[in-house]
Write a structure and sequence with these properties.
The chain has 13 helices and 14 strands. The protein has 407 residues and is an alpha+beta fold. Strand 2 and strand 3 form a beta hairpin.
Protein backbone atom coordinates (compact mmCIF):
# COMPACT_ATOMS: atom_id res chain seq x y z
CA UNK A 1 0.00 0.00 0.00
CA UNK A 2 1.30 3.43 -0.93
CA UNK A 3 0.30 6.61 0.91
CA UNK A 4 1.87 9.72 -0.57
CA UNK A 5 1.85 12.96 1.41
CA UNK A 6 0.90 16.29 -0.11
CA UNK A 7 3.35 18.20 -2.35
CA UNK A 8 4.38 20.43 0.52
CA UNK A 9 5.19 17.44 2.73
CA UNK A 10 7.19 15.58 0.14
CA UNK A 11 9.78 18.18 -0.62
CA UNK A 12 12.79 17.51 1.55
CA UNK A 13 11.52 14.82 3.92
CA UNK A 14 14.68 12.78 3.22
CA UNK A 15 17.90 13.07 1.22
CA UNK A 16 16.50 13.88 -2.14
CA UNK A 17 17.15 15.03 -5.64
CA UNK A 18 14.80 17.71 -6.90
CA UNK A 19 14.30 17.76 -10.63
CA UNK A 20 13.53 20.95 -12.48
CA UNK A 21 14.67 22.16 -15.87
CA UNK A 22 18.35 21.84 -16.97
CA UNK A 23 20.86 19.07 -16.12
CA UNK A 24 24.15 18.04 -17.51
CA UNK A 25 25.37 15.44 -15.06
CA UNK A 26 23.00 12.54 -15.55
CA UNK A 27 24.58 10.17 -18.05
CA UNK A 28 21.55 7.98 -18.50
CA UNK A 29 18.81 7.02 -20.89
CA UNK A 30 15.64 9.05 -20.34
CA UNK A 31 12.48 9.32 -22.33
CA UNK A 32 10.25 12.27 -21.59
CA UNK A 33 6.55 11.50 -21.87
CA UNK A 34 3.79 14.06 -21.68
CA UNK A 35 0.91 12.30 -19.94
CA UNK A 36 -1.72 14.90 -20.80
CA UNK A 37 -4.51 12.88 -19.35
CA UNK A 38 -2.78 12.98 -15.95
CA UNK A 39 -1.37 16.48 -16.30
CA UNK A 40 2.18 15.34 -15.49
CA UNK A 41 5.46 14.63 -17.22
CA UNK A 42 7.13 11.28 -16.85
CA UNK A 43 10.29 9.67 -18.15
CA UNK A 44 11.89 6.24 -18.35
CA UNK A 45 15.51 5.57 -17.46
CA UNK A 46 17.79 2.70 -16.53
CA UNK A 47 19.45 1.41 -13.39
CA UNK A 48 22.75 1.92 -15.18
CA UNK A 49 22.03 5.65 -15.40
CA UNK A 50 21.60 5.85 -11.65
CA UNK A 51 24.67 3.69 -11.04
CA UNK A 52 26.96 5.79 -13.25
CA UNK A 53 25.77 9.06 -11.79
CA UNK A 54 26.10 7.97 -8.15
CA UNK A 55 29.46 6.29 -8.79
CA UNK A 56 30.88 9.54 -10.12
CA UNK A 57 29.29 11.56 -7.32
CA UNK A 58 30.61 9.32 -4.52
CA UNK A 59 33.93 8.40 -6.14
CA UNK A 60 33.47 4.64 -6.15
CA UNK A 61 31.52 1.79 -7.71
CA UNK A 62 27.87 1.93 -6.69
CA UNK A 63 25.39 -0.92 -6.46
CA UNK A 64 21.76 0.28 -6.64
CA UNK A 65 19.76 -1.72 -4.10
CA UNK A 66 16.33 -0.25 -4.64
CA UNK A 67 14.28 2.69 -5.88
CA UNK A 68 10.78 3.44 -4.64
CA UNK A 69 8.37 6.32 -4.25
CA UNK A 70 8.72 8.28 -1.05
CA UNK A 71 5.80 7.35 1.18
CA UNK A 72 5.48 3.84 -0.25
CA UNK A 73 6.86 0.61 1.10
CA UNK A 74 10.49 -0.16 0.35
CA UNK A 75 10.93 -1.90 -2.99
CA UNK A 76 13.80 -4.08 -4.18
CA UNK A 77 15.35 -3.33 -7.54
CA UNK A 78 14.43 -0.50 -9.84
CA UNK A 79 11.03 -1.42 -11.20
CA UNK A 80 9.67 2.06 -10.43
CA UNK A 81 12.06 3.72 -12.86
CA UNK A 82 9.70 3.23 -15.81
CA UNK A 83 7.28 6.11 -15.94
CA UNK A 84 9.11 8.22 -13.37
CA UNK A 85 6.76 11.12 -12.61
CA UNK A 86 7.84 14.72 -12.12
CA UNK A 87 6.79 16.04 -8.75
CA UNK A 88 6.95 12.56 -7.17
CA UNK A 89 10.04 12.04 -4.98
CA UNK A 90 11.91 8.74 -5.09
CA UNK A 91 14.10 7.13 -2.45
CA UNK A 92 17.29 5.63 -3.88
CA UNK A 93 19.10 3.07 -1.75
CA UNK A 94 22.59 2.07 -2.82
CA UNK A 95 25.83 0.54 -1.57
CA UNK A 96 29.17 2.25 -2.05
CA UNK A 97 32.52 1.47 -0.42
CA UNK A 98 30.82 -1.09 1.81
CA UNK A 99 28.25 1.38 3.17
CA UNK A 100 24.51 1.49 2.44
CA UNK A 101 23.20 5.00 1.82
CA UNK A 102 19.85 6.55 0.96
CA UNK A 103 19.15 9.72 -0.95
CA UNK A 104 15.94 11.19 -2.34
CA UNK A 105 15.44 12.31 -5.93
CA UNK A 106 12.66 14.87 -6.31
CA UNK A 107 11.44 16.86 -9.27
CA UNK A 108 9.43 20.07 -9.60
CA UNK A 109 6.21 20.17 -11.54
CA UNK A 110 5.73 22.93 -14.17
CA UNK A 111 2.26 23.87 -12.90
CA UNK A 112 2.14 27.53 -12.00
CA UNK A 113 3.25 29.39 -8.85
CA UNK A 114 6.14 30.86 -10.84
CA UNK A 115 7.42 27.43 -11.89
CA UNK A 116 6.14 27.65 -15.47
CA UNK A 117 9.46 27.71 -17.30
CA UNK A 118 12.53 25.52 -17.14
CA UNK A 119 14.51 28.54 -15.96
CA UNK A 120 12.07 29.12 -13.06
CA UNK A 121 12.56 25.63 -11.71
CA UNK A 122 16.31 25.70 -12.30
CA UNK A 123 16.59 28.93 -10.32
CA UNK A 124 14.85 27.37 -7.31
CA UNK A 125 16.95 24.21 -7.27
CA UNK A 126 20.27 25.92 -7.84
CA UNK A 127 19.53 28.34 -5.02
CA UNK A 128 18.43 25.54 -2.68
CA UNK A 129 21.64 23.64 -3.29
CA UNK A 130 23.67 26.76 -2.54
CA UNK A 131 21.68 27.70 0.58
CA UNK A 132 20.50 24.53 2.37
CA UNK A 133 23.87 23.78 3.94
CA UNK A 134 24.30 27.30 5.32
CA UNK A 135 21.35 27.15 7.73
CA UNK A 136 21.68 25.34 11.08
CA UNK A 137 19.73 22.06 11.38
CA UNK A 138 18.68 22.12 7.74
CA UNK A 139 18.63 18.88 5.75
CA UNK A 140 21.81 18.87 3.69
CA UNK A 141 21.94 19.10 -0.08
CA UNK A 142 24.26 16.54 -1.62
CA UNK A 143 24.10 17.64 -5.26
CA UNK A 144 22.07 19.48 -7.85
CA UNK A 145 21.83 18.36 -11.44
CA UNK A 146 19.58 17.93 -14.44
CA UNK A 147 18.48 15.29 -16.88
CA UNK A 148 19.63 15.73 -20.49
CA UNK A 149 16.89 15.93 -23.07
CA UNK A 150 17.97 12.73 -24.86
CA UNK A 151 19.76 11.20 -21.87
CA UNK A 152 22.94 10.35 -23.75
CA UNK A 153 25.43 11.94 -21.42
CA UNK A 154 27.02 15.28 -20.59
CA UNK A 155 25.59 18.14 -22.57
CA UNK A 156 25.88 21.89 -22.64
CA UNK A 157 23.31 23.82 -20.61
CA UNK A 158 21.54 24.76 -23.79
CA UNK A 159 20.51 21.15 -24.27
CA UNK A 160 19.75 20.27 -20.67
CA UNK A 161 16.55 18.91 -19.26
CA UNK A 162 15.22 18.93 -15.68
CA UNK A 163 17.22 19.80 -12.55
CA UNK A 164 17.26 17.80 -9.35
CA UNK A 165 18.49 18.34 -5.83
CA UNK A 166 20.12 15.65 -3.69
CA UNK A 167 20.05 16.05 0.09
CA UNK A 168 20.93 13.90 3.04
CA UNK A 169 18.36 11.38 4.30
CA UNK A 170 16.68 12.55 7.50
CA UNK A 171 14.60 10.19 9.61
CA UNK A 172 11.88 11.51 11.88
CA UNK A 173 8.29 12.70 11.97
CA UNK A 174 6.94 15.92 10.50
CA UNK A 175 5.63 18.43 13.05
CA UNK A 176 2.16 18.56 11.52
CA UNK A 177 1.57 15.03 12.84
CA UNK A 178 1.93 16.45 16.35
CA UNK A 179 -0.68 19.08 15.57
CA UNK A 180 -2.98 16.46 14.03
CA UNK A 181 -2.74 14.40 17.22
CA UNK A 182 -3.38 17.41 19.44
CA UNK A 183 -6.41 18.39 17.37
CA UNK A 184 -7.86 14.88 17.59
CA UNK A 185 -7.27 14.51 21.35
CA UNK A 186 -7.91 18.08 22.44
CA UNK A 187 -4.95 17.85 24.79
CA UNK A 188 -1.19 18.00 24.76
CA UNK A 189 1.74 17.03 26.96
CA UNK A 190 4.89 18.67 28.28
CA UNK A 191 6.82 17.60 25.17
CA UNK A 192 4.39 19.51 22.94
CA UNK A 193 5.08 22.71 24.86
CA UNK A 194 8.83 22.07 24.81
CA UNK A 195 8.77 21.51 21.05
CA UNK A 196 6.82 24.73 20.53
CA UNK A 197 9.44 26.60 22.55
CA UNK A 198 12.26 24.87 20.65
CA UNK A 199 10.81 26.12 17.36
CA UNK A 200 10.41 29.63 18.75
CA UNK A 201 13.97 29.56 20.12
CA UNK A 202 15.25 28.44 16.73
CA UNK A 203 13.80 31.56 15.10
CA UNK A 204 15.23 33.71 17.88
CA UNK A 205 18.63 32.31 17.01
CA UNK A 206 18.59 32.51 13.23
CA UNK A 207 16.88 35.93 13.21
CA UNK A 208 19.69 37.31 15.38
CA UNK A 209 21.92 37.19 12.29
CA UNK A 210 21.47 40.55 10.53
CA UNK A 211 22.62 41.97 7.23
CA UNK A 212 22.91 45.51 5.93
CA UNK A 213 21.47 45.22 2.42
CA UNK A 214 18.33 47.35 2.04
CA UNK A 215 17.79 46.24 -1.54
CA UNK A 216 17.38 42.62 -0.40
CA UNK A 217 14.68 43.61 2.08
CA UNK A 218 12.88 45.63 -0.58
CA UNK A 219 13.09 42.71 -2.98
CA UNK A 220 11.66 40.38 -0.33
CA UNK A 221 8.78 42.80 0.25
CA UNK A 222 8.15 42.99 -3.49
CA UNK A 223 8.21 39.21 -3.85
CA UNK A 224 5.85 38.81 -0.88
CA UNK A 225 3.24 40.60 -2.97
CA UNK A 226 4.08 39.65 -6.56
CA UNK A 227 5.91 36.32 -6.50
CA UNK A 228 4.17 33.30 -8.00
CA UNK A 229 4.43 31.42 -4.69
CA UNK A 230 3.27 34.37 -2.59
CA UNK A 231 0.22 36.63 -2.40
CA UNK A 232 -0.56 37.31 -6.07
CA UNK A 233 0.32 33.75 -7.04
CA UNK A 234 -2.02 32.41 -4.37
CA UNK A 235 -4.80 34.77 -5.40
CA UNK A 236 -4.41 33.71 -9.03
CA UNK A 237 -4.75 30.07 -7.99
CA UNK A 238 -8.21 30.59 -6.47
CA UNK A 239 -10.92 29.24 -8.83
CA UNK A 240 -13.75 31.58 -9.85
CA UNK A 241 -17.24 31.62 -8.31
CA UNK A 242 -16.35 30.32 -4.86
CA UNK A 243 -19.00 30.18 -2.16
CA UNK A 244 -16.81 31.60 0.61
CA UNK A 245 -15.15 34.63 -1.02
CA UNK A 246 -16.02 37.01 -3.86
CA UNK A 247 -13.70 38.23 -6.56
CA UNK A 248 -14.06 41.79 -5.31
CA UNK A 249 -12.84 40.62 -1.89
CA UNK A 250 -9.72 39.13 -3.47
CA UNK A 251 -9.12 42.39 -5.34
CA UNK A 252 -9.40 44.33 -2.09
CA UNK A 253 -6.87 42.02 -0.42
CA UNK A 254 -4.42 42.47 -3.27
CA UNK A 255 -4.84 46.25 -3.20
CA UNK A 256 -4.30 46.37 0.57
CA UNK A 257 -1.17 44.24 0.25
CA UNK A 258 0.31 46.59 -2.34
CA UNK A 259 -0.10 49.41 0.17
CA UNK A 260 1.67 47.28 2.77
CA UNK A 261 4.59 46.77 0.39
CA UNK A 262 5.28 50.49 0.53
CA UNK A 263 5.13 50.44 4.32
CA UNK A 264 7.55 47.51 4.48
CA UNK A 265 10.07 49.28 2.26
CA UNK A 266 10.72 51.65 5.16
CA UNK A 267 11.74 48.74 7.41
CA UNK A 268 14.88 47.58 5.60
CA UNK A 269 16.87 47.76 8.85
CA UNK A 270 15.04 44.58 9.87
CA UNK A 271 16.76 42.37 7.27
CA UNK A 272 17.66 39.07 8.94
CA UNK A 273 18.60 35.49 8.21
CA UNK A 274 15.38 33.58 7.58
CA UNK A 275 14.15 30.13 6.67
CA UNK A 276 11.42 31.45 4.37
CA UNK A 277 8.90 28.59 4.62
CA UNK A 278 8.88 27.68 8.30
CA UNK A 279 5.68 25.68 8.66
CA UNK A 280 4.82 22.29 10.27
CA UNK A 281 5.38 20.38 7.02
CA UNK A 282 8.97 21.63 6.86
CA UNK A 283 10.04 20.63 10.37
CA UNK A 284 11.12 17.05 11.06
CA UNK A 285 11.28 16.12 14.75
CA UNK A 286 13.51 13.31 15.98
CA UNK A 287 13.68 12.37 19.66
CA UNK A 288 12.48 14.93 22.18
CA UNK A 289 13.01 18.49 20.96
CA UNK A 290 15.70 17.65 18.40
CA UNK A 291 14.61 18.58 14.89
CA UNK A 292 15.75 19.27 11.34
CA UNK A 293 14.26 21.93 9.10
CA UNK A 294 13.52 21.29 5.44
CA UNK A 295 13.18 23.32 2.25
CA UNK A 296 14.10 26.90 3.08
CA UNK A 297 12.77 29.13 0.32
CA UNK A 298 12.94 32.40 -1.58
CA UNK A 299 16.24 33.79 -0.31
CA UNK A 300 18.59 33.65 2.65
CA UNK A 301 17.63 37.11 3.95
CA UNK A 302 14.25 38.59 4.68
CA UNK A 303 11.75 39.75 7.27
CA UNK A 304 11.56 37.70 10.53
CA UNK A 305 7.76 38.04 10.48
CA UNK A 306 7.78 35.70 7.49
CA UNK A 307 8.96 32.76 9.63
CA UNK A 308 6.95 33.63 12.74
CA UNK A 309 3.66 33.90 10.86
CA UNK A 310 4.32 30.79 8.78
CA UNK A 311 4.33 28.71 11.97
CA UNK A 312 1.81 30.53 14.15
CA UNK A 313 -0.89 30.74 11.46
CA UNK A 314 -1.07 26.97 11.85
CA UNK A 315 -1.94 27.21 15.55
CA UNK A 316 -4.79 29.51 14.51
CA UNK A 317 -5.72 27.24 11.59
CA UNK A 318 -5.85 24.07 13.67
CA UNK A 319 -7.75 25.86 16.43
CA UNK A 320 -10.40 27.07 13.99
CA UNK A 321 -10.92 23.50 12.86
CA UNK A 322 -11.13 22.23 16.45
CA UNK A 323 -12.95 25.02 18.29
CA UNK A 324 -14.14 27.53 15.67
CA UNK A 325 -11.90 30.14 17.28
CA UNK A 326 -8.46 30.51 18.85
CA UNK A 327 -8.93 28.56 22.08
CA UNK A 328 -7.81 25.61 24.17
CA UNK A 329 -4.52 23.85 23.51
CA UNK A 330 -3.83 25.74 20.30
CA UNK A 331 -4.24 29.11 21.94
CA UNK A 332 -1.70 27.91 24.51
CA UNK A 333 0.79 27.00 21.75
CA UNK A 334 0.14 30.27 19.91
CA UNK A 335 0.80 32.37 23.03
CA UNK A 336 3.76 30.27 24.12
CA UNK A 337 5.48 30.67 20.76
CA UNK A 338 4.83 34.40 20.46
CA UNK A 339 5.59 35.34 24.08
CA UNK A 340 8.86 33.42 24.07
CA UNK A 341 9.92 35.02 20.78
CA UNK A 342 9.09 38.56 21.85
CA UNK A 343 10.68 38.18 25.28
CA UNK A 344 13.96 36.85 23.88
CA UNK A 345 14.27 39.11 20.83
CA UNK A 346 12.72 42.27 22.23
CA UNK A 347 11.43 42.77 18.69
CA UNK A 348 8.10 44.43 19.37
CA UNK A 349 8.38 46.21 16.04
CA UNK A 350 7.49 42.90 14.39
CA UNK A 351 3.86 43.55 15.34
CA UNK A 352 3.93 46.47 12.89
CA UNK A 353 4.93 44.29 9.92
CA UNK A 354 3.30 40.87 10.40
CA UNK A 355 0.04 41.91 8.73
CA UNK A 356 0.80 41.14 5.05
CA UNK A 357 2.67 37.98 6.06
CA UNK A 358 -0.32 36.74 8.01
CA UNK A 359 -2.45 37.63 4.99
CA UNK A 360 -0.26 35.49 2.75
CA UNK A 361 -0.25 32.53 5.12
CA UNK A 362 -3.99 32.92 5.64
CA UNK A 363 -4.50 32.67 1.88
CA UNK A 364 -2.46 29.45 1.90
CA UNK A 365 -4.44 27.63 4.58
CA UNK A 366 -7.78 28.90 3.21
CA UNK A 367 -6.91 27.70 -0.29
CA UNK A 368 -9.26 25.18 -1.95
CA UNK A 369 -6.22 23.93 -3.88
CA UNK A 370 -4.07 23.10 -0.87
CA UNK A 371 -6.93 22.18 1.47
CA UNK A 372 -9.84 20.96 -0.69
CA UNK A 373 -11.81 19.39 2.19
CA UNK A 374 -11.77 22.31 4.59
CA UNK A 375 -15.05 23.34 6.20
CA UNK A 376 -16.60 26.44 4.56
CA UNK A 377 -16.99 28.26 7.88
CA UNK A 378 -13.28 27.85 8.59
CA UNK A 379 -12.45 29.39 5.21
CA UNK A 380 -14.81 32.31 5.87
CA UNK A 381 -13.20 33.00 9.22
CA UNK A 382 -9.72 32.79 7.70
CA UNK A 383 -10.70 35.38 5.11
CA UNK A 384 -12.14 37.57 7.86
CA UNK A 385 -8.77 37.28 9.58
CA UNK A 386 -6.87 38.20 6.41
CA UNK A 387 -9.11 41.19 5.69
CA UNK A 388 -9.05 42.52 9.25
CA UNK A 389 -5.32 42.18 9.97
CA UNK A 390 -4.52 44.14 6.81
CA UNK A 391 -6.39 47.07 8.34
CA UNK A 392 -4.45 47.07 11.62
CA UNK A 393 -1.60 49.48 12.17
CA UNK A 394 -0.30 47.19 14.88
CA UNK A 395 -1.18 43.52 15.27
CA UNK A 396 -2.79 42.70 18.62
CA UNK A 397 -1.87 39.23 19.86
CA UNK A 398 -5.00 39.19 22.03
CA UNK A 399 -7.40 40.11 19.21
CA UNK A 400 -7.31 37.04 16.96
CA UNK A 401 -10.88 36.06 17.81
CA UNK A 402 -12.00 39.59 16.97
CA UNK A 403 -10.11 39.45 13.66
CA UNK A 404 -11.85 36.22 12.59
CA UNK A 405 -15.25 37.86 12.90
CA UNK A 406 -16.69 39.61 9.86
CA UNK A 407 -15.81 43.25 9.53
Amino acid sequence: MCILPSFGVLSGALIYILVAPFLCMFGCVFKMVDEKSKGILSLDFSEEAFREYLSELYGGDVEVCGVWRLGCERAEGVKDLKGFGYGVPYVIEFRVKGEVKRVVLETMRPEGFGHDYVSDRAQTLLWQHSAFNKLPRHVRSVDVGAFTVDGKGLKSLGNCGEFFLLTEYVDGRLYHFDLDRIKAAGEMGDLDEKRCLALSDYLVKIHSVKKEAPWLYVRRARELIGHGECIMGLLDSYPPELDFVRECDLIDIERDCVVWRWRLKRKAHRLSQVHGDFHPWNVMFHEGTDFTVLDRSRGEWGEPADDVTAMTINYIFYSLQKYGELAGVFERLYRLFWENYLQKTGDWEILEVVQPFYAWRGLVVASPIWYPNLNREVRVRLFNFVHNVLHQERFDLDAVNRYIQSG
